[in-house]
């Protein structure tokens, strides 16, 4: 029986950073299914640099967005036509993207069977994501596996990390941070990202200060704490750092990084990252860094739906009670969370390489 040939695949995930990072398992699935698969992605400018750093991506196309002029949209359509893609996988379906795929003449166009945009796709998978019964990255994987089935390709067996960095990277990043911040390499390093980029509810700075101080006092050996920040968040991180230092907690603010990829590489130095459900949390998940996530309890944003894609043993999550105040993060018991984190914090280990194969 002849083996299926490699395919030119276009994957669309053109929304926020965290959403894109949760697409990496699907990208790994498509890339590892066949040695000759060519995987392109259509992403916004904000995530394009990370897309270029993704080991499962061969080509990055930048989506100008819904508000781009008609001429710019025509240029994107011409680019899609020139790509001669065999299949389009739209992880989050919108009418404009569906229309572009149809106009570009891509023969196989697969997307979730949601919203009226599905009329532009000729393969649709019913998922009912609004019920939040599975992790987002699992929904993405389900679509990728459905596409491979349509193409007659085997479905590979995947394991974290979905962003396997060179084995020397973690050591280099730890040496860099130790030099910049005077960190003690013999201690555990806990990273905290208190910002949200406006995309998710999060703990307040006062709650983060109480949490970190409470974790630290419960550890056999105090940790080194590093506060990370995104654009416009450095002042808040510095204020949180001052608060923790006043409490006697060894805390530093990570110096500014050159770009988003440099920032992401820095997260590989962490022994733990604590954050709300935001981009840095999901970058750390892709790196298989142990993560502690703080989530609201509303159905569209639960810890299950927006679970990080690291190993089960590297993942811990907290939410307020699931009632009419499900987004009130102040209702999380900080002392109980601190005790749980201190008891759970995995011992530092070298990141494993992802398992590959087919089933």
UniProtKB/TrEMBL annotation:
<dbReference type="InterPro" id="IPR051199">
    <property type="entry name" value="LPS_LOS_Heptosyltrfase"/>
</dbReference>
<protein>
    <submittedName>
        <fullName>Glycosyltransferase family 9 protein</fullName>
    </submittedName>
</protein>
<dbReference type="Pfam" id="PF01075">
    <property type="entry name" value="Glyco_transf_9"/>
</dbReference>
<keyword id="KW-0328">Glycosyltransferase</keyword>
<keyword id="KW-0808">Transferase</keyword>
<dbReference type="InterPro" id="IPR002201">
    <property type="entry name" value="Glyco_trans_9"/>
</dbReference>
């Amino acid at each position: 029986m002849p083996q299926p040939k490699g395919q030119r695949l276009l994957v669309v995930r053109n929304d926020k950073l965290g959403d894109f990072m949760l697409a990496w398992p699907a990208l790994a699935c498509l890339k590892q299914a066949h040695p000759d698969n060519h995987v392109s992605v259509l992403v916004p400018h904000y995530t394009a640099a990370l897309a270029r750093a993704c080991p499962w991506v061969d080509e990055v196309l930048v989506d100008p967005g819904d508000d781009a002029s008609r001429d710019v949209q025509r240029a994107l359509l011409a680019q899609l036509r020139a790509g001669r893609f065999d299949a389009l996988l739209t992880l989050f379906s919108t009418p404009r993207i569906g229309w572009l795929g149809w106009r570009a003449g891509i023969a196989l166009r697969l997307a979730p069977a949601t919203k009226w945009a599905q009329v532009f796709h000729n393969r649709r998978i019913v998922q009912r994501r609004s019920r939040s019964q599975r992790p987002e990255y699992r929904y993405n994987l389900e679509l990728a596996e459905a596409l491979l089935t349509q193409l007659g390709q085997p479905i590979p067996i995947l394991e974290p990390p979905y962003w396997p960095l060179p084995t020397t990277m973690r050591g280099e990043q730890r040496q860099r941070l130790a030099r910049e911040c005077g960190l003690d390499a013999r201690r555990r390093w806990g990273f905290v990202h208190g910002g949200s980029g406006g995309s998710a509810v999060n703990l307040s700075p006062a709650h983060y200060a109480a949490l970190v101080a409470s974790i630290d006092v419960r550890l056999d050996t105090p940790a080194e704490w590093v506060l990370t920040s995104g654009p416009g968040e450095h002042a808040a991180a510095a204020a949180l750092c001052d608060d923790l230092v006043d409490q006697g907690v060894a805390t530093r603010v990570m110096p500014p990084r050159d770009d988003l990829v440099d920032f992401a590489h820095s997260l590989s130095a962490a022994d733990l990252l604590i954050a709300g459900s935001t981009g840095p949390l999901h970058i750390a998940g892709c790196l298989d860094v142990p993560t502690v996530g703080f989530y609201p309890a509303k159905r569209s944003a639960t810890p299950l739906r927006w679970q990080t894609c690291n190993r089960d043993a590297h993942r811990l999550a907290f939410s307020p009670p699931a009632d009419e105040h499900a987004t009130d993060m102040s209702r999380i018991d900080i002392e109980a969370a601190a005790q749980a984190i201190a008891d759970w914090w995995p011992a530092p280990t070298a990141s494993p390489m992802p398992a590959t194969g087919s089933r």
